[in-house]
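dumping this here before i forget
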Amino acid sequence: MDELKRVSQVAIAAALGWTSMVLAQATPQTGNHTGNQTRTSSASSSAPAKQAPLQLRSLAPDAVADPFPPINPKFFTAKSPTAATVDSYLHAVLGYDSNRIWRVVAIQTTPAAGVSRVTALVSEKTPNAKVQQAAFFVLDDGKHLIADTSGVLPFGADPYAENRALLQARADGPARGAASKDLMLVEFADLQCPHCKDAAPTMKRLAEDFPKARIVWENYPLVDLHPFAEKAALDGVCVAKKSNEAFFAYADAVYATQEKLTADEGEETLKNAIVKAGADPAAVAECARLPETKHAVDASLKLGQEVGVDQTPMLMINGRLLPLGGIPYETLKQIVAYQAELDGVRTGIVPGAPSLIPRTAPVTNK
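structure:
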């Protein structure tokens, strides 16, 4: 099924809150368009000197050479966003990899009022590492960006704050781990989705590695693809009324026999999973027919749509959206630790998980 294929590298980058990066000549957009932008801006509109742009992150002191070209003020013609805001955004999105460095080289006006084009160069501390160019458009609300085919993504100095608050207020599905909502790992999943089944061990490992995280399940049944997804979700809502532990036992049992969710065996398969969770199939069936149960599943779907979920399984780490099936576990663990660090959360991290090493301050050109 196309909707459930492994996420491509470009899609992963988009889900990380970043754009697809393409190898390109390390220069910002030039030509007539740039010339027009320069003419329509005053000399003091957004010069880097006045914005004090944070141009370089975490370049090792012993690095052989600066891989980026110097800043050219003529490419900073837009008043918003500031270079400092763009740098903070890149720090939030890319900074989990301490080997990565970047420089903001252009923030330009566009023919669309209030929309700015941002160009950044990204590389690594490794000598002779390739330099990649990434460009995106910041919308006039200052809270969103558009890049290539990645869709509309959150933007800002703290790009995940809005979604983080939304999840803290409304992600109320079955949960395990900490009671605190300071570090929330919210999974949006479909019990008939094969990739969700594959991701279940990953969620258990995260629970072990981050004991102070609150791990929440939110239903996101893909009813157009999976005929038993909604019924499994409805039954799950009812099993969860018994306890959180009962729900996760039910989910494990459904995944274990997922291949039997067919027209001939689906009903019996779900009943067996309910029994294994210690719940009463008759009571669950009655509960599943209630309008309030359908409302709970619909509310979970709506929440997912509002925070950008469009496939399963997806994971939100304090508001940061990631595809669970497309990221190596060690990288995922590193991102969780880094996001917790940014949000000032003590993770209760266990031995072997990534350490939270303070990132060095940015280096600016003199």
